[in-house]
Amino acid sequence: MTLMKVEKLTKNFGGLSAVSGVDLTLKNKELVGLIGPNGAGKTTLFNLLTGVYSPSEGSIDLVQDGTTVSLIGKRTDQIAELGVARTFQNIRLFKNLTVLDNVRIGLHNKYGVNTFSSLLRTPGFYRAEEKMTEEAMKLLEVFALDEKADYLAKNLPYGDQRRLEIVRALATDPKILFLDEPAAGMNPRESVELTQLIRQIQKEFDLSVVLIEHDMSVVMNVCERIYVLEHGRLLAHGTPEEIRANKEVVRAYLGGE
Ligand SMILES: Nc1ncnc2c1ncn2[C@@H]1O[C@H](COP(=O)(O)OP(=O)(O)OP(=O)(O)O)[C@@H](O)[C@H]1O
Ligand SMILES: [Mg+2]
Fold it and tell me: Among 116-120, 142-146, 162-166, which is the least confidently predicted range?
């Protein structure tokens, strides 16, 4: 079942085409890799798919309960509400809030706690708050961060901050999760552990995940399908075996490895 369909997606910055005529389909519950050399347009593609940039050309459709919704012209928060979450290549957390509060913020959409009920401290507000804390703690447990729930985000070790960002994205209850180099800056052991964890949550939470990752062995190991970008264009897509055997990909990307 198709969840997202992207056609001829293009983003020009002045004379530079950062993303150029990209077609991409995301199915229900699959783990897809997005690879390509530095500057290939991977992050720009994520920025287009999550509403940070509006495309110069092309379409992005989300299929929900049999209906197709175009994401063109939608704001980032509207896209998040439709079930699309992401993490950033450069960590973005509320650094001076606790680990727990970072996750609770992600849960706000789902629980519909509005300003009115929080100002008046209605009984409904307290119930929702309690439930949110419970659920946030459960999510933190999955990532072994529950014991650090009271830490300020800025005081977490680097690897924990990266994982907290994923927890926060998960808290918004997404159907699609875009992860921009979640293992960047981690040591090889942490990186392998994180990738296993991504696999696990993809299954457990019934998600479609798109993973940008530079470590080829990691991508080849965990992804069911892989898209390869080069200079903004889609060079190839296919199973790990197909990508490994693709001469163009080997020339552009794998040649040196
Ligand atoms: N806001 C912007 N304004 C102008 N040029 C941009 C902007 N964002 C990205 N670019 C350019 O678009 C191209 C693609 O950049 P992008 O960050 O998407 O690459 P990437 O594949 O994510 O690279 P990396 O692996 O280094 O993260 C680069 O040439 C970059 O300089
Ligand atoms: Mg990038």
Answer: 116-120
Class of domain 2-83+173-254: alpha beta
Q: Tell me which residue has its CA closest to atom 11 in ligand 1.
A: 18
Task: Give the pairing type, strands 67-70 and 233-238.
Answer: unpaired
CA of 41 from ligand 1 middle (Å) equals: 5
Looking at residue 257, its pLDDT comes to 46
Asked if 34 and 245 count as a contact pair (C-beta separation under 8 A), the reply is: no
- Measured CA to CA, the distance from residue 216 to residue 32 in angstroms comes to 13
Which residue minimizes the CA distance to atom 7 of ligand 1?
13
Q: What are the pLDDT digits (tens) for 8-49?
A: 999 999 999 999 999 999 999 999 999 999 999 999 999 999
Tokens (6 digits) for 37 = 């050399």
pLDDT for the residue numbered 124: 73
What DSSP state is assigned to residue 29? T
- Ligand 1, atom 2, lies closest to the CA of 13
Indicate if ligand 1 lies below 6 Å from the C-beta of 37: no
Ligand 1, atom 29: nearest CA belongs to which residue?
A: 39
Per DSSP, which regions of the chain are E strands? 2-13, 16-27, 31-35, 57-64, 67-70, 84-86, 176-180, 208-212, 225-230, 233-238
User: Can you give the residue ranges of every domain in the chain?
Assistant: 2-83+173-254
204 half-sphere exposure, CB direction, 13 A CA radius: 10
Q: CA-CA distance, 223 to 30, in Å (whole number)?
A: 8
The Å distance, Cα 114 to ligand 2 centre, comes to 35
Q: 64-115: per-residue pLDDT in tens?
A: 888 999 999 999 999 999 999 999 999 899 999 999 999 998 887 677 665 5
